[in-house]
Amino acid sequence: xxxxxxxxxxxxxxxxxxxxxxxxxxxxxxxxxxxxxxxxxxxxxxxxxxxxxxxxxxxxxxxxxxxxxxxxxxxxxxxxxxxxxxxxxxxxxxxxxxxxxxxxxxxxxxxxxxxxxxxxxxxxxxxxxxxxxxxxxxxxxxxxxxxxxxxxxxxxxxxxxxxxxxxxxxxxxxxxxxxxxxxxxxxxxxxxxxxxxxxxxxxxxxxxxxxxxxxxxxxxxxx
Length: 223
Known about the structure:
The chain contains eight helices and five strands. By secondary structure, it is α/β, with parallel strands linked by helices.
């Protein structure tokens, strides 16, 4: 899971069970059971809320992405922690979509651990995505960043670098969007309105799968 939102409540807001003041072991276990059970009605309700609010925006974003792909775009996906796994899954959807679908060039920016650790060690973790975007990004390309809090500094810097290069930028965040909601470097932003990291990531997975399918449909079947 990625960095927390920068509010007075701090880490406890999104990760209450990690609070040093939390000594109720039974309560932690009960919370864990609730998280793992993932009430289907709550999950489905959240996904439906996102669909109703952002359905048109998803179509518009997918059409913009399809236009970029027709022009030879490559997609770069990135995130921290659990969101890095989602970013790699997103890239895999475009690159290996399955029979009948058009394969599209897509890369997860956390896949090369040598690059990530070199930049983190030699320069700073805040630049691990921006430096890669700066090295590989072209004006027609696409940058997609995922965050549960919306406050990850390395995502914000990557979006700024991508926008500066003329790339299409897509942000997927949680809660109220955090600093990503204030960023001028994000062209399309989708926010899952929940304070639960687990529910956010579940809904985000559905969201980017829908974004892939809408983009693939706009481009048409494989030749």
